[in-house]
Amino acid sequence: MKVWQKNLILILLVIALAAVPLWLLPNAEFGGADGAAEEAITELNPDYEPWFEPILEPASGEVESLLFALQAAIGAGVVGFVLGRLTKSDKNKGEK
How does pLDDT run along the chain (96 residues), one tens digit per residue? Predict the structure, then answer.
């Protein structure tokens, strides 16, 4: 099997993985783990107070999402760079 065929299969699997839950559960609320954890803590212990507050509170949910996406992109870039360096072929190691 050629490399482009493997890549195409992987891309289709990723698209299916993202689309199938949205297709099967169109009216479902897809919340984050933070919200579910907060609800569970409140249910178990209504008097719970957090240990600390955030130093910087983002201005809005959009800014918070932007910062999260930026963090994920930087992490993916670092992981991709490290994997690229680790899998570099031997013939290129001597060249600079």
Answer: 889 999 999 999 999 999 998 899 888 887 778 888 989 999 999 999 888 888 888 888 889 889 999 999 999 999 999 999 988 876 655 555
Tokens of 22: 């949205």
CA angle 29, 31, 32 (to 5 degrees): 165
Residue 79 backbone dihedrals phi, psi, to 5 degrees? -60, -45
What distance in Å separates the CA atoms of residue 60 and residue 54, rounded to the nearest whole number?
14
DSSP per residue over 51-77, as a string? S---SS--SSHHHHHHHHHHHHHHHHH
Residue for token pair 């493997």: 6
pTM, two decimals, is: 0.50
